[in-house]
Amino acid sequence: MPVQQHVLNWLYSVLTSEYHDVNRTYNDVAQALSQYPSLSPRTDVHTFDNGVSALLLHLSGTIPVVFRGTTYRFPISIWVPHAYPREAPLAYVTPTENMMVRPGQHVDPQGRIYHPYLAAWPEFWDKSSPLDFLVILRDIFAKEPPVVSKQQARPPPPQHTPSPNPPPPVPPLPPDVSRETSMRHHTPQQTDGGRPPPPPPKGHDLPQVVSGPSTVATGPPPPPPPLPPGVRRETAQHSPHPHPAPTHQPNRLSRYETAPPLPPQPQDQQHQPAPVYHQQPSPPGQYHPQPQQQQPPQPYPPGGPAPPGGGYPPTDSRRTSIVSPATPYNAAVVHGPPGPPYTSPPPNWQQQQPHHPPPAQPKPKPPPPPDIMDEPLTLTLPSPSNAPPPPIPPNPEKDALLRQLASTLFTLRQRARDQNASLLAGLAAQRSAMQTALTKLQSDTAALGPLSATLQSNAAILRQSIRDADGVIEGSRALPPPDIDALLVAPTVVANQLYDAVAEERALGDAIFVLGRAVERGRIGPAVFAKTTRSLAREWYLKKALVRKIGRGMGLVG
């Protein structure tokens, strides 16, 4: 797959700044990117094992590996050093959040990849490339996967039937109250985990009873308000009629925050008949429990066992948060000295309760929807804050460049200082030599004065001689040219005879040579050539003998 041109342009511009062999690095990285499009190049700061940081070219991504017939993509990252290709690239396995490194023969626990191909890279750098190394990695990972998936803990399945949690220890209560409270604690309450439990009905439907601690918590209860002095318990009122519960939540809790105190019961609960619940119509707009969460209670005969939980339906855990066992207020339910044992409410309490129902708070009127047409066209901008803006986080690339620049400048300064220190001795010797030369030049300048006067007089004489020679040349042009024989005159007669004999002997040799060439080209016939050559050769021999004789006589030939 071809690499996009703007990526190649960026790659070349990055390599020209720090890398030693730009063309080789560009070629190898471009080939790797074309073969593996899942790799993406960028520049990052890499910290070596010795603690030195450098801004390197970083190839990160995944490579496809076939493991047991299935193709997996393992994440890797390759760092290209500045001395590439003389130095081998650094390879790492980079697992994601849901993966972890699997140490093996070629991968250490930190994800560093080791292989003989990388170890022998400096020796065979001209034959190594990242593309070949990726092929080797695929073969290695096909046998030993470098990463494994983390074992994620599965969430427990939702429990539709919650088990009751034991309440924290409470102070000892009277026997009757303790027995009734324990019966309420062990009452199974089925509450749908997806919806909140229903609120209690109006106060005039059922007699008020003490609500037991909730065993199913749908969420963290809100912090309870402080209890007033005296015996204060939260009361809950229930209706056996199932009605849908409204979704309005704020008014439901405030309605039950202040409950009237329970009247003292002088009689034992065992001698009181169980209250019988009667169906009464519910006024509209009130809260009612949901049918799938409550069951209508059954009347019990006098003297029989009390119904579980005091004979009342389960209450909402959020409304009973004041006396919830999760808070420390459950231990402070009864204040002062213990009173008589708690028993069932008397009949007169059932009649007195409807006379004092808690006032129902009106539902707040929802605000009207905003009208976009009535809003002004100007946009109100928030007032500028006087708080200072947050500091800009440091840029690691900028810090790396600054450190590299400082190191480079320090190295250049030290190099220039050492070079200047080594040149000081030579400069001092050169200064002394120049001072000596200056003294010598001054002495030579003083000696050149007489020499200059002598040269000027010689130059005047030379100019006069040149003028005389020019006059002789002009006069010789009017005379006839001399004979060449008159110019070459020997000092003696024998010498002149020798000059003539040598000239004739050389001329005869040249004539015989020319006749031979003429015969070859057909200019003369063979008979003429033979006759002429015979006579010239005889004369040539005589001239040679004469030259030898004259030379012997003059002492030129030994």
UniProtKB/TrEMBL annotation:
Annotated compartments: Endosome
Region (Disordered): 146-398
Protein transport as UniProt keyword: yes
SUPFAM superfamilies: Endosomal sorting complex assembly domain, UBC-like
Highest taxon listed in the record's lineage: Eukaryota
UniProt-listed Gene3D superfamilies: 6.10.140.820, Ubiquitin Conjugating Enzyme
Biased composition annotated in UniProt, kind: Pro residues: 154-175, 219-229, 294-311, 337-348, 355-371, 385-395
Residue ranges of every copy of the SB domain listed in the record: 492-558
Predominant place of localization: other
Pfam families: UEV (PF05743), Vps23_core (PF09454)
Record-annotated UEV domain positions: 6-151
Keywords of this entry: Coiled coil, Endosome, Protein transport, Transport
Family: Belongs to the ubiquitin-conjugating enzyme family. UEV subfamily.
Record's protein name: UEV domain-containing protein
